Each structure stands twice: as C-alpha cells, then as structure tokens.
C-alpha cells in the first residue's frame, strides 16, 4: 500500500507540472502576442499533454489568435479550456477562459452566447486585481450592447472599462473608452454630452501623443458638427483627423468625409478632388459610398454620362459587398457544423486516454501479483520515482522562492505606490490651497473694483458740480466786467462831449484828457488782469476735468479687461460657449444642469459658494442667476425652464429686491455682471 501511495504522488506531480513553453508564451503574451503564437504553435501533439497543460494551451492559443486579429472559426479549443477550468477554484483563469469564449462566440455571430460568456467573465474578474482584463471584458460588453442599440447598458459598461484603465494609467485605453462613451451618448441624441466626452478624449490623446486615436476623436467631433449643420467647424475637425490618420483605411475615410463636407458647402471642385483620391481604395465600403456621392455630384452638375457611370460602379460595388458576405456566412455555418464533430472527437480522445490509464493500472496490479519475483526491480523504480519527486519538490521550492521574490517586489511597488499617493494628496492639497487663494484674491479684487467704482462715480459727480458752479461764477464775473466796460465807454463818451464844450480852457482840457487817459489805461490793465484770471480758472477747470475723465477711462479699461478675461474663459470652455452662442436652447434635464454647473464652476470659481452663503435662494433662482451671469437673455432663460418671459422677469425682480435692495437704479443683469 505504501508503494501505491508514492506512485500516486509521483503521477499527480507529473500532471500538475507546467510546460516551460506555456509559461514563456504567457509571459510574452501582452507585449509580443505574435511571438507567443509562434511558441504555442511550435508545440507538437498538444492533445497528448497532461489535461491541465492541454487546457492551458487551448486558452493561450485562443488568446494569442485574438490578439493577432485572427478570426475565430471554431470554439472547440476554448471549449476544452472552459470545461477544465470552470471546475477549478481559480477566478483569474475562469475570467480569462470566459472572456476568450466570448471573443470566439462573437466572431461566430452568436451574440447571445457571447453576452452570457462576458457576464460570467465579469463576475469572476471582480475577484481579481487584473484591471486590464476587467477593462477588456467591459469594453466588449459595451460593444455588444451598443451593437444591439442598448445604449444605457453600453454606457455603463464603457464607463466601468474607463475606470479600470484609469487604475492602471492606460492612456490609450482611457481615450478609447471615452470615445465609446461619446458614441453611446451620440446614439442617445445627447450631442452636448457626447461633445464633452469627445473633448476629454481629445485632450487626453494630445497629452499622450496618441495620433491614431486622436484622428478617430476628431472624426467623431466632425460628424457631430456635420449633423448640426455646422459645416465650417466640421471641416476643421475633418482636416485635423486627416493629419492624424496613420493607415490607408483611415485616410480613405477622411477623404470621403472631406468630400461629403465640401459637397454640403457647395464646393464641388474640392469635393471631386478628395473623392477622386478614393478611386484606388481597397475598402469596398468606402469606394461604394464615394461612387454614390460622385453620382449625386454629377447629377447636380448636369453631367448625365458621368452620373450614369458612377451609378453603375456604385451598383457593382454594392453587389460585390453582398457576394462577399455570403462566403463568410457559409464559413460560419461550416464552423458551427464542425463544432459537434470536434466535440465528439475530443470526447473520444478523453475516453481513449481513460482506457489507456485503466490498462496501465491493470498492468500495474498484475505487476504487483508477480512483485515477489521482481521486487528488486520495483525498488529501483521506487527510488527513481522518489528522485523525481525530490526534483519536483526542488522545482516547487524554487517556484515558491520566486513567488516570495515577486511578493517582495509587489510589496515594494505597493510602498512606492503609497508614497506616490501621499505625494499626490499633498499636491492636491496645495492645489486646493492655491485655488482658495486665487478665489480670495479675485473676491478682494472685485470688492475693490466695486468700491473704486462707487468712489469714482461720487468724485465725478462732485467734480461735475464744482465745474458747473465755477463756470457759472466765471460767466457771472465776465458779465459784470462787460457791464463795467460798457459803463466806462459811456463815461468816456460823456467826458468827450464835455471836453468839446470846454475848448476855451485848453489847459484844463489837457489835464482832463491826461486824467481820463490814465484812467482808461488803468481800466485796460484791470481788464487784462481779469481776463488772465478768467483764463487761468478756465485752464485749471479743464485740466481737472481731463484728469477726472482719464480716471474714469482707466476704471472703464479695468472693467473691460475683467469682462474680456471672463469672456476668454467662457470661449475656452466648449460647453459654456456652446450654451451662450446657440440661438435656440432646449428644455434642460437634471443631467444637463450637472454638466452646466461643473463647467460654470471652472470659469467662475467660488461664485456659487459665495452666492449660496450670502443669500437664501431656491435651486431655480440659483440657476437663473448663473445663466444671467453667463450673459443669457431672458428669452433663452425662459426656454430652458419652459416658463414665460414675464415670469422670468418677475423672478429676477424679486431676487434683486431681496438680495440687492439698495441698487434700485440697476437691473439684476447689470448687478450680477459685476457682482463677485
């Protein structure tokens, strides 16, 4: 019995051992899937391997073919792996085999079975720390839901995939999932939200310098603007996508998009130029669409011969596409037909293996019957098995040692990660502090601006009053001087008449003339002095008035600069600029308000906090104040809330009376424009 026990241990050790080729192939699978496939296909007669190794080989071959974009035509190999590993308590292997099963079933157009496999994989993956696998499972789940127009479930899956990619800082995966989220929102006709996520994907692609995905994002943004009728903006996005296209297939798609947008803009020559570049495309779908558009252009241009030729080419390409899909359908049916035959073959091989094992057991028992005659021989075999067992234990110890090293490395990585997280927290705290300081500075600056404005306005009123009084006094003095001059002229006239009658006394006449002449000169000197004083007063008044006008101009410049700064921030925010510039707005839902408030806080930091802390306002009143701060007119605000314009005006008037009772000379729009 002891002999049988050690034999069983040796056999189990042989079956649990892993082939080094499988280990090496799995090690290079992520970075070099083509090399992994070469290693796996180089293994001869893998079905003769132990059951665990054969199941692992089937899993890795399926995984390598999927990563090398080899279309799956049969699920026999992955079926072997699923049947073996689903009986094991290994969540990671289960998640892998169910995910690969979903990929195979998707290629076989068995979407229901593929969805079930992906859900099983997701259930097992949440028990592991393989975030890359989690992301890929959720990404393909989202693709299945999107294909069946279940946009809500697709959106949930894509967001979970994005979170998983974010945990491992996979920038390419994050950009891809953000594009997929935008695609779902676009399918739900939430174009503003879709544009928001496309914008995030574009920013991330720019930061990560991911050219291929950047082109895809730009194409999606161009399509949204094309649907909205914003042809100029769509043209800019399509041109950017063309610059970032990195393979001929994407180039042909961008050529077609440019041809389509130039057709919409009425620029026929440009449309023909770009559509002509697709004539030699290997993509039948793109060529088919291009010939259909060329047919429309020729028809609109009044060229019936060319229109007929393009239409014939279009019909031929469409027929070719239909014929092309028929062989694929036949191949799929053939694969499904062979599935059961391959399964039966595998079951037959397993039965043969069990029979061979039974035969060996019988032979072993027979050898025990005659063991007394070959006892020494079995002792040698037992020693050999013990030696192999020792070697297996050495390998196990080595694997344990390597595992401990890996655990140590993992602990070090976790420690480094904790340090990085602490640094990140410090950076975030410093960022929050700087933001608070900036908000406080902005608040102080705005308060100073309000105070300076009030002081300037008061000073201006005082200066205008003083200037008016000085001018009136000057005019009064000038009038009095003119009256005196007139009286002097009259007096001189009387004296002249009197002197004429005094011709007899020449000496007295000359004396009187001298006196009058001196008085006249004195009067002229007084008039000159008075005019100098008046000119000095007028110059001083004009200088003071000019200084006051310049001070007012400086304050106006500061106000304009602040308003220009706010407008620049709004223009940089795609969401707020879109809301401000749209001629007609729709009734907003709660999600629209969330997106708006998130972007509003980025442009006006601290405004909402100060508003809610200073005044007791309802949610609707707060939203009306925010839209007023953005510069929206009463008409647009009434459309957003689905209320009458008179109702909106009454609400604004009530807010002004409650919150700004002293500012009776200004409307709420004027007050909010400069408040905080």
Quick tags:
676 residues, mainly alpha, Serine Threonine Protein Phosphatase 5, Tetratricopeptide repeat, 84% helix
Protein architecture, described:
The protein is mainly α. Among the domains are: 249-313, Serine Threonine Protein Phosphatase 5, Tetratricopeptide repeat (Alpha Horseshoe); 451-568; 573-674, no CATH class. It has helices spanning 2-16, 20-27, 33-41, 51-67, 76-85, 91-107, 111-125, 131-147, 151-167, 171-187, 191-208, 211-227, 231-244, 248-264, 268-276, 284-301, 304-369, 375-500, 506-572, 574-581, 590-603, 607-614, 619-630, 634-641, 645-659, 668-674. The chain is elongated, with a radius of gyration of 45 Å. It starts with a helix and ends with a helix.
């Amino acid at each position: 019995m002891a002999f049988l026990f050690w034999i069983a241990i040796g056999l189990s050790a042989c079956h649990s051992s892993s082939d080094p080729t499988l280990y090496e192939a799995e090690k290079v699978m992520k970075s070099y899937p083509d090399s992994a496939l070469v290693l796996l296909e180089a293994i001869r007669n893998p079905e003769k391997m132990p059951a665990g190794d054969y199941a692992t080989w089937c899993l890795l071959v399926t995984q390598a073919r999927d990563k090398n974009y080899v279309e799956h035509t049969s699920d026999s190999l992955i079926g072997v792996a699923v049947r073996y590993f689903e009986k094991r308590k290994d969540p990671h292997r289960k998640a892998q085999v169910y995910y690969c099963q979903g990929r195979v079933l998707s290629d076989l157009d068995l979407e229901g079975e593929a969805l079930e496999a992906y859900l099983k994989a997701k259930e097992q993956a949440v028990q592991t720390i393989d975030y890359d696998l989690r992301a890929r499972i959720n990404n393909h789940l989202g693709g299945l839901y999107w294909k069946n127009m279940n946009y809500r479930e697709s959106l949930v899956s894509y967001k979970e995939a994005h979170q998983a990619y974010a945990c491992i800082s996979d920038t390419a995966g994050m950009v891809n999932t953000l594009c997929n989220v935008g695609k779902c929102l676009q399918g739900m006709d939430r174009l503003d939200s879709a544009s928001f996520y496309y914008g995030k994907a574009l920013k991330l692609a720019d930061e990560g310098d991911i050219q291929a995905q950047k082109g895809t994002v730009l194409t999606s943004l161009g399509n949204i603007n094309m649907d909205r009728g914003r042809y100029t903006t769509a043209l800019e996005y399509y041109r950017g996508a063309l610059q970032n296209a990195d393979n001929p297939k994407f180039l042909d798609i961008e050529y077609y998009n440019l041809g389509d947008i130039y057709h919409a803009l009425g620029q026929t020559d440009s449309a023909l130029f770009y559509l002509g570049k697709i004539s030699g495309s290997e993509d039948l779908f793109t060529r088919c669409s291009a010939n259909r558009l060329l047919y429309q252009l020729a028809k609109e241009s009044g060229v019936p011969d060319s229109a007929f030729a393009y239409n014939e080419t279009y019909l031929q390409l469409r027929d070719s596409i239909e014929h092309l899909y028929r062989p694929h359908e036949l191949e799929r049916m053939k694969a499904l037909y062979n599935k059961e035959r391959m399964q039966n073959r595998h079951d037959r091989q397993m039965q043969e293996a069990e029979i061979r094992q039974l035969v060996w057991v019988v032979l072993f028992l027979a050898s025990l019957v005659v063991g007394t005659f070959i006892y020494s021989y079995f002792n040698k075999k037992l020693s050999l098995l013990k030696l192999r067992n020792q070697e297996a234990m050495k390998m196990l110890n080595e694997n344990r040692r390597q595992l401990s090293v890996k655990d140590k490395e993992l602990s070090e990585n976790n420690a480094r990660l904790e340090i990085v997280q602490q640094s990140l927290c410090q950076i975030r705290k410093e960022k929050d502090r700087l933001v608070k300081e900036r908000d406080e500075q902005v608040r102080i600056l705005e308060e100073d601006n309000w105070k300076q404005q009030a002081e300037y306005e008061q000073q201006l009123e005082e200066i205008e009053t003083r200037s008016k009084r000085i001018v009136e006094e000057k005019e009064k003095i000038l009038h009095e001087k003119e009256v005196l001059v007139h009286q002097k002229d009259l007096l001189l006239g009387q004296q002249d008449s009197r002197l004429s009658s005094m011709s007899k006394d020449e000496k007295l006449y000359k004396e009187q003339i001298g006196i009058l002449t001196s008085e006249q000169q004195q009067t002229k000197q007084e008039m000159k002095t008075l005019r100098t004083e008046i000119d000095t007063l007028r110059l001083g008044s004009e200088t003071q008035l000019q200084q006051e006008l310049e001070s007012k101009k400086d304050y106006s410049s500061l106000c304009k600069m602040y308003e220009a700064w706010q407008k620049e921030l709004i223009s940089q925010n795609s969401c707020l600029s879109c809301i401000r510039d749209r001629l007609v707005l729709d009734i907003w839902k709660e999600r629209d308000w969330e997106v708006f408030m998130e972007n509003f806080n980025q442009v006006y930091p601290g405004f909402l906090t100060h508003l809610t802390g200073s005044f007791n306002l309802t949610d609707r009143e707060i939203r009306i104040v925010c839209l007023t701060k953005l510069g929206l007119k009463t008409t647009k605000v009434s459309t957003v809330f689905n209320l009458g314009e008179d109702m909106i005006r009454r609400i604004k008037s009530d807010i002004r009376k409650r919150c700004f009772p002293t500012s009776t000379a200004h409307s709420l729009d004027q007050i909010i424009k400069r408040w905080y």
